Amino acid sequence: MVLTALDDGELIHKLYRIRGKGRNDWSCEAMWNSFIASFLFEHETVESLLRELCRNKQLRTLCGFEPKAVKQKDGSIKIYVAPSASAYSKFLKNLMSCQEKLEEMFTGLVLYMYRNLEHFGEILMVDGKAIQSFGTKASKNQKSGGRGEHEADWCQKQYSTSGPNGESVIKTKKWFGFRLHLIADATYEIPVAFTVTKA
After folding, report:
1. Residue 185 CB neighbour total at 10 angstroms
2. In whole angstroms, how far apart are CA 149 and each of 48, 132, 136, 143, 174?
């Protein structure tokens, strides 16, 4: 249902244009569908998603992955059922260059909600969420590319709570990463607008 609701035709065409004449072991549709599935099934890392794809034939079928038979140097045939980590990294790099198309898709879905859900957008709520980076600090090596964290920052949040004797206790939470700022419809709990900043 989620995959059929996404108006992703232009995005897929752009991904194919970016790929050009490069390797086409796995279709852009299947890679994109698996990317969406990673959020639906709460896979926090690419490695976790790829393990699930190797294990779960039904998920592979839903995403559109077809087994690949590859002849090895010794003449034997090896069957691959899911993309490698390096293939997925290349896909994610291409997807990151499609930010404008992704935002257009989001806006299109929000406009659909305004047209089809009664009272959508009348009562809004604002919230924020900490998003921790997998990195532990900013990379000083500018040549590290995607392997280094160049965009995150440190953040510290303080809040008060009650101690065992009723006294006020100040707790401090510190993290390295980003912050999601979200506006959502309070009735349907559906996002209306968002931005991501350094923590």
Report:
1. 20
2. 21, 11, 8, 11, 17
For residue 171, the cross-strand partners are 159
Contacts 24+ apart (CB under 8 A), 156-160: 157/130
| Crossing angle (nearest 10°) for helices 28-40 and 9-19 | 120
Q: What is the block-wise mean pLDDT of the chain (199 residues), using blocks of 10 residues?
A: 92 94 86 96 94 96 93 89 94 95 95 96 94 81 67 86 84 90 96 94
pTM above 0.90, yes or no: no
CB burial string 39-63: b at 16+ within 10 A, e below = eeeebeebeebbebbeebeebbeeb
> Residues 7, 111: contact at Cβ < 8 Å?
no
Residue type present at position 95: L
